[in-house]
């Protein structure tokens, strides 16, 4: 099948069809209850007819008189805007001007728009390796609750969600799905333009880890990389979010990776306003709770796997699916990964950044190839009337007129490839299991000769302890004596300390790997979309703080991490392993995790958090 001659009626791949059917059957009770609640909410009278006079007066008191007249007298459609704007985050700074633009466009179509509320948005890049990072994962649930608070005024016929980054999009999506009767469109802001190459940034970080360059040189490199408004240009969680929203039909097609600050970006924001109004005005019943069904969830999983996207989504999309009454697990990801080919190499899975990915074909190319190969469901609802095929086009602006051109062949086969000739016949993520529990590994960024690592363990109770061992030279001595090391960093799960990302460990471990040692990381913490060339078995479940097997590992135990066979094993006699008593989390560490930088406010979330495989949900 030529990339320029799409198969508009492909047969579904049997594995994709079977996984979807299994998810649907498993989810039947929850999904049925969810849809029943959605339809009850959708059949109510409109808010202006349902509300008491005092309630309505409060809701419109702060808006311009013309808008007030439209809402109260003309019963105009009213859009709720939920925004993650702040100017602390480069990715969210462009949102400062969006509400005024949306309101202006809504008025052109006889509607109104109000900022329903703001949600917090923190940057893992700012908090990486600091105490604040321990709030990061649970900020997703805070964002979901903040979205619910914003929409609970119940004044809206539709909603626009303004958010981009790691926990922000999953939080907005979870919150929106709890108002599943509303039409909802997500509005991205786009990536910053390209700075220095990501590999150059990584090189300087490794030099800094060895003390070969100082703070001044390192800071200069980082500022050249993160240099303007927009999302970071590597393919981490933020940019994976945007691809998944395209694959689920929740964006205006092709908007994910258009840079901020240009005319096309502005017109796409206007188009998002027109799109959400079209769902209500034309009475095309496509609320978000109907769009996000089992097929849409599988489509998101397929897009993630085909691009080697963020491992964070093996946590977040479990929670997203749950919010729509759907139950997925890591076995579903693993089974799909065996048949979904890797079609993109974007840093850290390659050298290209997301701007180069967009230029090579971008999300439209990936979606088209997966659809044509029967690896995505085309028969789904989206926020557009043309279905998922609309998401295989590239937006163009002629004056003020938007159009979409079909995506042709790949413009760079080193960045995106057709499904008939992929980088790999399987996806970029792998499920591991064995005596040490269940975990995931991002294989797409790992050299082929690092897919199997067998080495003695060195156990650490914190990432700071590992860094200290590296800086003192002790960790390298371990490697010299034993040929390699598998670093076990435990007490990093949701219940222990909120499950921070551990990217500060990547440069030192990369240094050791670069010296020819066999090195790997095993942890109940996270690494996410920026997982690099060091093998990392992450999200180990059950976590050590819940009595998981990492609490039983001792220094010197030989661990086998086999990404090919999907194994995470400890090479001890079964009886000896079974006799091990798990360590308890040191009380001093538990106390330190519980206080300072606002962490005491999250005590209840840590206490009630489910495992990573169950989405680290804190609200059930």
Written description of the protein model:
It comes from Polaromonas vacuolata. One of its GO terms (biological process) is Entner-Doudoroff pathway through 6-phosphogluconate. Pathway: Carbohydrate metabolism; Entner-Doudoroff pathway. Strand 13 and strand 14 (567-570) form a beta hairpin. An eight-stranded mixed beta sheet has the order 7-8-12-11-10-9-13-14. Helix 5 (98-108) packs across helix 12, helix 7 (136-151) packs parallel to helix 8 and helix 8 runs parallel beside helix 15 (313-323). The mean pLDDT is 94. It is globular, with a radius of gyration of 24 Å. It has 620 residues and is of the alpha/beta class. 40% of the residues lie in helices and 13% in strands. The chain folds into two domains: 41-193 and 228-406, no CATH class; 429-614, 3-Layer(bba) Sandwich (Glucose Oxidase, domain 1), CATH 3.50.30. It has 25 helices and 14 strands.
What's a concise summary of this model?
It contains 25 helices and 14 strands.
Strand content: 5-15%
Overall 3D geometry?
globular
Tally of individual helices: 25
**Percent of residues in helices:** 40-55%
Tally of individual domains: 2
Question: Topology, pairings included?
Answer:
Blueprint: H1 14-42, H2 47-50, H3 53-60, H4 65-72, E1 78-83, H5 98-108, E2 112-118, H6 124-127, H7 136-151, E3 158-162, H8 168-177, E4 184-187, H9 198-209, H10 215-225, H11 237-247, H12 263-281, H13 288-291, H14 294-307, H15 313-323, H16 330-337, H17 354-360, H18 362-372, E5 393-398, E6 401-406, E7 429-432, E8 438-442, E9 452-460, H19 463-471, H20 474-482, E10 484-489, H21 494-497, H22 506-514, E11 518-523, E12 536-541, E13 558-562, E14 567-570, H23 574-578, H24 587-594, H25 603-608
Parallel strand pairs: 1-2, 1-3, 3-4, 9-10, 10-11, 11-12
Antiparallel strand pairs: 5-6, 7-8, 8-12, 9-13, 13-14
């Amino acid at each position: 099948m030529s990339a320029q001659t799409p198969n508009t009626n492909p047969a579904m791949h049997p594995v994709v069809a079977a996984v979807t059917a299994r998810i649907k059957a498993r989810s039947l009770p929850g999904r049925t209850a969810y849809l029943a609640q959605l339809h009850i909410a959708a059949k109510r009278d409109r808010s202006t007819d349902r509300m008491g006079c005092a309630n309505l007066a409060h809701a419109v008191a702060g808006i311009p008189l013309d808008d007030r007249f439209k809402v109260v007298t003309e019963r105009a459609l009213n859009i709720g805007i939920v925004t993650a704007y702040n100017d602390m985050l480069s990715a969210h700074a462009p949102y400062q001007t969006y509400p005024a633009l949306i309101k202006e466009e809504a008025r052109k179509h006889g509607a109104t728009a109000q900022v329903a509320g703001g949600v917090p948005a923190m940057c893992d890049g700012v908090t990486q390796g600091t105490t604040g990072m321990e709030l990061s994962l649970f900020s997703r649930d805070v964002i979901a609750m903040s979205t619910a608070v914003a929409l609970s005024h119940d004044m809206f016929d539709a909603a626009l969600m303004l958010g981009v980054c790691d926990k922000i999009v999953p939080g907005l999506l979870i919150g929106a799905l709890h108002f599943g009767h509303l039409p909802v469109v997500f509005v991205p802001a786009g990536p910053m333009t390209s700075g220095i190459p990501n590999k150059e940034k990584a090189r300087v970080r490794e030099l800094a880890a060895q003390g070969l360059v100082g703070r001044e040189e390192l800071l200069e490199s980082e500022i050249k990389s993160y240099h303007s408004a927009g999302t970071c240009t590597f393919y981490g969680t933020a940019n994976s979010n945007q691809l998944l929203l395209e694959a689920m039909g929740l964006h205006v097609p092709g908007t994910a990776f258009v840079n901020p600050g240009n005319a096309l970006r502005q017109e796409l924001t206007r188009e998002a306003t027109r799109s959400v109004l079209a769902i209500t005005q034309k009475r095309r019943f496509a609320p978000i709770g109907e769009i996000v069904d089992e097929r849409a969830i599988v489509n998101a999983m397929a897009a993630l796997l085909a691009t080697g996207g963020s491992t964070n989504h093996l946590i977040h999309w479990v929670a997203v699916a749950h919010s729509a009454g759907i139950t997925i697990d890591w076995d579903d990801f693993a089974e799909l990964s065996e048949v979904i080919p890797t079609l993109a190499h974007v840093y850290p899975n390659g050298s290209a950044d997301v701007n180069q990915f967009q230029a090579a074909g971008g999300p439209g190319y990936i979606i088209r190839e997966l659809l044509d190969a029967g690896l995505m469901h085309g028969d789904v609802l989206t926020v557009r009337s043309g279905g998922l095929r609309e998401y295989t086009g590239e937006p163009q602006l002629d004056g003020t007129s938007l159009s979409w051109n079909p995506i042709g062949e790949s413009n760079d086969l080193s960045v995106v490839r057709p499904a008939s000739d992929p980088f790999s016949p399987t996806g970029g993520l792998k499920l591991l299991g064995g005596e040490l529990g269940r975990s995931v590994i991002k294989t797409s960024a790992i050299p082929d000769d690092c897919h199997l690592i067998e080495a003695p363990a060195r156990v650490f109770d914190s990432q700071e302890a590992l860094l200290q061992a590296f800086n003192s030279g002790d960790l390298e001595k371990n490697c010299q004596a034993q040929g390699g090391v598998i670093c076990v960093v435990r007490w990093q799960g949701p219940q222990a300390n909120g499950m921070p990302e551990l990217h500060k460990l990547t440069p030192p471990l990369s240094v050791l790997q670069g010296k020819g040692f066999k090195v790997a990381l095993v942890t109940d913490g996270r690494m996410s979309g920026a997982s690099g060339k060091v093998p990392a078995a992450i999200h180990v479940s059950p976590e050590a703080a819940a009595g998981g097997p990492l609490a039983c590992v001792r220094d010197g135990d030989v661990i086998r991490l086999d990404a090919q066979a999907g194994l995470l094993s400890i090479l001890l006699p079964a009886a000896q392993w079974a006799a091990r008593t798990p360590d308890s989390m040191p009380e001093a560490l538990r106390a330190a995790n519980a206080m300072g930088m606002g962490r005491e406010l999250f005590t209840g979330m840590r206490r009630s958090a489910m495992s990573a495989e169950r989405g680290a949900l804190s609200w059930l």
